[in-house]
Model the fold of this input.
Amino acid sequence: MSMQRIGSTIQLDHGSGGRATHELVQELFAAAFNNKFLLEMNDSALVEVEGGQLAMTTDSYVVDPIVFPGGNIGSLAVHGTVNDICMRGARPLYLTAGFILEEGLALKTLCEIVAGMAEAARKAKVLIVAGDTKVVPKGKADKIFINTAGIGIVPPGIKVGGHNARPGDAVLINGTIGDHGMAIMCKREGLAFENEIRSDSSSLNELVEAMLKSCPHINVLRDPTRGGVATALNEIAQQSKVGIHLEEDALPIRDDVAGACEILGLDPLYVANEGKVLVCLPAQAVEGVLQAMRHHPLGRASCKIGEVVADEAGRVMMKTRIGGLRLVDMLRGEQLPRIC
Amino acid sequence: MSMQRIGSTIQLDHGSGGRATHELVQELFAAAFNNKFLLEMNDSALVEVEGGQLAMTTDSYVVDPIVFPGGNIGSLAVHGTVNDICMRGARPLYLTAGFILEEGLALKTLCEIVAGMAEAARKAKVLIVAGDTKVVPKGKADKIFINTAGIGIVPPGIKVGGHNARPGDAVLINGTIGDHGMAIMCKREGLAFENEIRSDSSSLNELVEAMLKSCPHINVLRDPTRGGVATALNEIAQQSKVGIHLEEDALPIRDDVAGACEILGLDPLYVANEGKVLVCLPAQAVEGVLQAMRHHPLGRASCKIGEVVADEAGRVMMKTRIGGLRLVDMLRGEQLPRIC
Done:
């Protein structure tokens, strides 16, 4: 990339829509996200899709710090939107990217973030086909905010949604919980452990594809991001009008994550994940799907953590280690601002 | 809307992803944007599309002030993205909305903005099918930023794009230039005129549909937003490798807009519009299309402002009132930060 014309920091004129914007777009964004749709430089990109059901989603990312162990705000912005699409069983295809930059942002930092986005898009096999850049005066935003929106195609016959959990379904997860949130918090608070806690931020579409190949009748997929596993399961319980029973002993939590949570007074059940998926599926499909999950690098530690029940509709209960049963409510208040 | 549970200002927990977020989403956003896709409350919305060419776009809106004569940041966020879609001749269908809110934002203000969005979406016949809300601590953003992304279907046979201008094409516009930018600047600077300058912010899809019905062979449609008419025409000239000749005398500018530009030292050719479209089309189609445009409320003052020429490829020249010919360059620097 030839960045000399751009300068070493982002200035207001990079958001003017004029010459400086064009230079930034061509030399940074278009070069990094390089694809024919984006390179056309029209008001919108024209992409080809088959007819049928399209999954469509958006998320804005305001994570602080913008670079963290295991990723940055750019890779996170791709992972999060790819995952929201594949939580409907859809194959993610095209993303858009909207940048809000604070005047004075170092170009080096922006390049690092854009490189993270481009790499994440490449790995997930999605194209960033349209974008937008705004610059606001110093102090009117915090370094960089990114919005990604995206679309994907739902293969015929797939019916995945938060309202489809059925009593008797097993609840699975593809690995340890709380890794993303605690990676962010440890970086923000300057907490150091023997082994650095890394975010689990990653695109789950390949894993989900393997799971649906093993069992096309998966009922629910949901990524437990903000609000954590507890909030995501509450959403499913309410949408499907079922109860969910969790086994405390079955919840996979890394020792260092559990330790960091204890120090900060946080419950890992409410801590955000960015590479995890909760699955509700018929009991008879569990073994096959678990095998498919464990076969994938992002599913090695997959396990069953609970089941869907008919009573206590709309509520999540946890069988504790000492044999009690306690209510697991949706997140109240805000324990971890700007986690994604 | 029952807003009592939400409180009078936005707090950090409205962006937690937990209970407060759910209440805000259900009682404000879902109620205002009311449609079956959004109400499903899944990670992404499932919409039906015919196969074929899909136009896809995104824009973030950071306009300051957030409420201005003729609109607010919410209506602007719908108009801008609807327009970017129909600039490819596509019929806009579905939008997503990502909100970044500053802690402390008055709920009343947010309600007004969301109502503006909902009304703009209703008028443009598009549905807001997916959304996201983030809240950042006070001082880390400026009140509210909105991203909208959207998709639309390109009818068969339509081939509109910035690279399609041909020598001999006429250049049309649907009305006066600079209205949006000067409405924002006058509000921001506290300039008052006898008649308030109102933004032209509006959705152009109905107008564009009427134009394409009159002439399916329109070559270029472009909305001259940031950077104004001068920058948009430069983009077309470069993409199509043609020259463009403008007639200064033909440029429609309101007297008060011209006056405000003079006071602020701005050139209306570089001032943003949000309800205008530049059109390049074969000369023989001009009369029919102008008639169709003038028939529509947003096209009453449509006129021809110039033509596409073979020489001076990539450049825009203006025949001035005194008979000279001057180069009209792309916007350099930033004359109007946070205009959209």
Remarks:
- Residues 160 and 219 of chain B are 5 Å apart (CA to CA).
- The mean pLDDT of chain B is 95.
- Chain B touches chain A through 88 residues (CB under 8 Å).
